[in-house]
Amino acid sequence: MEKKRIGLVAGPCSAENRSQMLETAWGLKALGVQMFRAGLWKPRSRWGSFEGVGAKGLPWMTEIQRELGLKVMTEVALPRHVEAVLKSGIDMVWIGARTTANPFMMSELAEALKGSRVTVWIKNPICPDIALWIGAVERLQNAGIQDVRVIHRGFCVVDSAPYRNAPLWELAELFRHYFPDLTYYCDPSHIAGKRGLLFPLCEKALSLGFDGLFVESHNCPEVALSDSAQQLTPTDLGALLRSLQVMIN
Ligand code: PEP
Ligand code: MN
Q: What's the alpha-carbon Rg for the chain, to the nearest Å?
């Protein structure tokens, strides 16, 4: 049977150190991954959790970009993140669920991104309110951002069991009617919260016509400094792609 071709963004929740980044990136490149993600500035709920290495990790990203030829992306939540990222020449950024939910922050980020050519991936807001999601895309488009792509990462609801975030697939479908021409990826990692739940979520997303997956992968998930339970080794990600019978586009 001909394998379905899908887009794939993969990489660790957080950039932790150079060897973790390079080892993970080499493992992913071996699978055919072309777009690498890693969070430098991490929005953590509790004070005292690992908040990312910040700008110190930018050279690790650009090394992966240069030496492995991967497109690299990180999360931006403040105008100073955008400034640092644009200066370093990173290819793409994503806007996280907590930021999409805040119209003030979206306006600030859209302003900071104005005139740049970076691809901007926008996650759904953490709460199930698609007006916030629509408004975030509108703010980016009004700022002249040409390449806006969408990530569905599930929503925070009172009872999301067994998931970390409820998928609420129908909301993602509804959102799509407003922007039918955008590219849609699903982030099963933040919906699931646990590796063991990833496979059926990926299957469902692909059956709904998502263009690709946005998956967290770490060379050694057990010791990851954030989202340890939901990350896959590159080898396990390869096995997941084989069970889904897909090829990376
Ligand atoms: C992430 O991608 O690591 C992240 C923090 O995601 P979200 O904004 O979806 O919680
Ligand atoms: Mn994460």
A: 17
- pLDDT given for residue 176 in this prediction: 97
By the 10 Å C-beta count (0-12 exposed, 13-18 middle, 19+ buried), 215 is classed as buried
Task: Determine which helix (DSSP H) or strand (DSSP E) holds 137, and give its type and residue range.
Answer: helix 130-142
Please name which of 171, 136, 119 lies closest in space to residue 9, comparing C-alpha atoms: 119
Distance 176 CA to ligand 2 centre (A): 24
Ligand 2 center to residue 153 CA distance, Å? 10
pLDDT tens per residue, range 125-181: 999 999 999 999 999 999 999 999 999 999 999 999 999 999 999 999 999 999 999
Ligand 1 atom 2: the closest Cα is on which residue? 13
Residue 92 alpha carbon to ligand 2 centre in Å = 17
Integer Cα distance of 93 and 114 in angstroms: 13
pLDDT score, position 40: 98
- Report the amino acid identity of residue 169: W
95 in helix, strand or coil? strand
Q: Which of 96, 224, 74 is nearest to 156 (CA)?
A: 96
Output the residue whose Cα is nearest ligand 1's atom 9: 97
Cα gap 13→215, rounded to integer Å:
9
Q: Residue 152 corresponds to which tokens in the numbers above?
A: 């569905």
Q: What is the pLDDT of residue 2?
A: 82
Task: Summarize pLDDT for 198-246 with one digit per residue, the tens.
Answer: 999 999 999 999 999 999 999 999 999 999 999 999 999 999 999 999 9
